[in-house]
Amino acid sequence: MTPAADTAGVLRVADEVAEALSSGRPVVALETTLVSHGFSQGRGLVAAQQAERRVRAAGAVPCTVGVADGLVRAGLDAAELARFAEAGTAARKAGARDIAACVAQRLLGVTTVGGTLAVCRVLGIRFMGTGGIGGVHRGFAESLDISSDLVELARTPAMVVCSGAKAILDVPATAELLETLSVPVLGWRTDTLPVFYRGEGGPPVAARVDGAADAARIAALHWRLAGASGLLLGRPPQPELDIEPVLAEAVGRVAQAGVTGQAVTPAVLALVEELTGGRSVEVNQQLIADNAALAAEVAVAYAAVAG
């Protein structure tokens, strides 16, 4: 995407978001892939609404990002958010590479973590909340299936608050690649990277933080000293759910069915939901809301540090 000055006519920023950015108030970006692809039966809309409410309650402005009617929309109203939910998997998953095509072809595009970060880079949004990031897929040596979320995180000066990489991924390999890309991985009151549904079992983090002000100071110093790359803040989910046996079965069944590319994650998550009797959905919705709230807390702390 081009610099903000060159986006007239293709980027629509909600008034509330624009006013917050111009006045230096904290803003938290939120993705829309989870709305359309992350849950079944419209539960993604509930998750998105909860995340926005938690951001506001923590003192920041939510900026949910999507593509519709030939525009990148930064900040969705209730009707627009419902439209993405109603579209379901018919909406195109839009990483950074897909945004221009979605705009030019007037497609309904739901932004991934990477796609949302691309918009953050244009607008200067420093914080994002999500469930889990994409990363290195299991069996990557044969397929080279690695999410562009990691590339966008490495090139965008924003902190992504999440519960680690999605559980269907090769988490240790993802952590190794983040280290290669010089992306600091911080642990929120933990010494290891959360594994999405579980708080423990991941690789060690680069640094542990125990408060929002601590995380904000590290982010501010990182952007001053190490350039325009992002940071990851891993927050353990509460409650937790150990789904590794179920997950292994779901990944295997999806692979046997020949599902590849962007279709893998929603297919696996749908199977996990079925095999856990819906328990995975409850945990997922809660961690998304909690991560959004923490992103807002750190954004508020950062506004005080930066100001």
UniProtKB/TrEMBL annotation:
Binds 1 Mn(2+) ion per subunit. The active site is at E31, K166. It catalyses: D-ribose 5-phosphate + uracil = psi-UMP + H2O. Pfam families: Indigoidine_A. Its EC number is 4.2.1.70. The keyword Electron transport does not apply. One of its GO terms (cellular component) is cytoplasm. InterPro entries: Indigdn_synthA-like, PsuG. GO terms for molecular function: hydrolase activity, acting on glycosyl bonds; metal ion binding; pseudouridylate synthase activity. Catalyzes the reversible cleavage of pseudouridine 5'-phosphate (PsiMP) to ribose 5-phosphate and uracil. Functions biologically in the cleavage direction, as part of a pseudouridine degradation pathway. Homotrimer. HAMAP family: PsiMP_glycosidase. Belongs to the pseudouridine-5'-phosphate glycosidase family. This is Pseudouridine-5'-phosphate glycosidase.
